[in-house]
Prior knowledge:
This protein has strands at 2-7, 10-12, 18-26, 33-39, 46-52, 57-59, 67-72, 77-82, 91-98, 105-107, 111-115. The chain has 117 residues and is an all-beta fold. A hairpin with a 4-residue loop joins strand 7 and strand 8 (77-82). The termini are far apart. 29% of the residues are buried.
Amino acid sequence: QVQVVESxxxxxxxxxxxxxxxxxSGSIFNIYATGxxxxxxxxxxxxxxxxxxxxxxxxxDSVKGRFTISxxxxxxxxxxxxNSLKPEDTAVYYCDAWGLGHLYDYWGQGTxxxxxx
Length: 117
């Protein structure tokens, strides 16, 4: 079993930055990848960025060049650095740690990100 806890959301003005954190504990050796999803009101949940245990990253086209996913192995924490934020980035952001082929998924509780002037 893996426990995932997100933090770092909040209110920011357009053009600003936020860093989200996803701390994992438990049987993390089974985790193939960790990623950030987001869900805006009335929209489907979408994958924003992911990072495999081997270090491969993947980004949604809408955030390429603005968001960066990274990992601190010593802290078992994955970060999402979000720069040049736009109002359309407003959503609840969820951290997901999953096994190969999404055989299992461990979700965090979500953190609200609001980009507004």
